[in-house]
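Notes on consecutive records. When two proteins share a document, each keeps its own sequence and its own token line. Never mix them. Below: protein one.
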Amino acid sequence: MGAWDYGPFDNDGAWDRIAELGDDAAANTERLEAAMLEILVVLDYVESPEAQGAVGAAVLTAIRLGAPSPNERITELVAAHPFDAANLRDLARRTLKRVTENPVDNEWHDLWLESGALDKVVGLLAPYKAVLEAEG
């Protein structure tokens, strides 16, 4: 059974990426970086599962940098899995911009637009975008 709701961790794509995290900070940083680069370097249409994973990585980065966690489970997850958020800030900022502001080439945006919930999910990402756009 899949996960689905409006929040950045309410989908299988984000949880697939989270499941890859372990105890090694350098490895976790590389995994989160890879998730975000996967949608930033592609020239073709970005599929929703990849975008979900990248959004999850970007939001984890924002939380580590001081954004509010959406729930206690995510707070515990961030505490349990070290990574270097400072070095991921720009990638995370660009990732959230890519999915929310480039409607012509990503399924994440298309699906939320078609469902009538795009404004809602973009609004849920606003606190994370604000932290990532702030001077570090």
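Protein two starts on the next line and is unrelated to protein one.
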Amino acid sequence: MKKSYSTVSQLLAAAAERAEATDAPAPAEAMRECVDLIVQRMASMLTGSLRAPLPMVLDRVVTWAAAQAVSVNGATRTAEGFRQLADQIERGAFAHLEPGPPGSKH
């Protein structure tokens, strides 16, 4: 069973421990888990404490991600990546998150 970490620092420490024990960089899954946790906490802080509207947070995160991708991959490859992501969304990659009719539970 996968261990759950309650704080970013615990997750980072566990990833560092594994990397040190094997004398290798942290595994991709550990890094992904850590990044996901940090992004989730950041979004919670922005929408909770700061009370930023979720559409604003999404706009800023997507804009930042697009700018970073362009700086690394160029505009053409970045645009193609966004098109592929849009295709995956349209094919139902996040269908389980779609809001249901009012009053329904999903």
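For the record: The mean pLDDT is 86.
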